[in-house]
Amino acid sequence: PVLLIDELDRTDEAFEAFLLEVLSDFQVTIPELGTIRAPEPPLVILTSNRTREIHDALKRRCLYHWVDYPDAARELQILRSRLPHAPEALSRQVVSFVQAIRKEDLFKAPGVAETLDWATALVELDAVALDPTLVIDTLGVLLKYQDDIQAMQGGRAKALLDEVRSSAG
Predict the structure, then answer these.
(1) pLDDT tens digits for 36-92?
(2) Which SUPFAM superfamilies does the annotation name (predicted)?
């Protein structure tokens, strides 16, 4: 059996305390029902987006595995599979731009979900290629913090777009 607990960092400390019993004894105690034991220990997978620190006692009971952003080829493959109707040139530019913007000093770099959301918005706007105005006008789909958006609006987004265009050309 597999138990997936997604985005643990979005839960509260009471839930983490509950998980300590689950992970150490593979059982849960419910006052109205008593203790329920797993017939066999499950494989437990916890995910976190690092929005807050997970308690050390819980981390000690886990093996840690970091999943990095995909490389450009893989991200393009993901985008194509989710938005097969997107223009090819736009898809390539979107992925290249997102890959470049992740190297910037941002509070929160965009994830694959933001890449897909941005590409979807651009397709809905009938875009076939990125241009500076379009990028600036849609940064709020890609970046989720105003400080990050402002940092990119000061000419940095255009410079990144120029880099993307020159490396593709």
Answers:
(1) 888 998 888 888 887 788 888 888 888 888 889 999 999 999 999 999 999 999 999
(2) P-loop containing nucleoside triphosphate hydrolases (SSF52540)
In the chain, where are the structural domains located? 2-59, 72-168
Q: What separation in angstroms does the CA of 108 have from each of 47, 105, 143, 149, 154?
A: 17, 9, 7, 11, 18
User: Of 111, 161, 165, 103, nearest to 134 (Cα)?
Assistant: 161
The pTM for the full model equals: 0.78
- Placement of tokens 């979107």 in the chain: 94
Give the distance, in angstroms, between the CA of residue 30 and the centroid of all CA atoms in the same chain.
Answer: 34
Amino acid sitting at position 14: A
User: Phi and psi of 141, rounded to 5°?
Assistant: -80, -35
Pairing of strands 43-46, 2-5: parallel
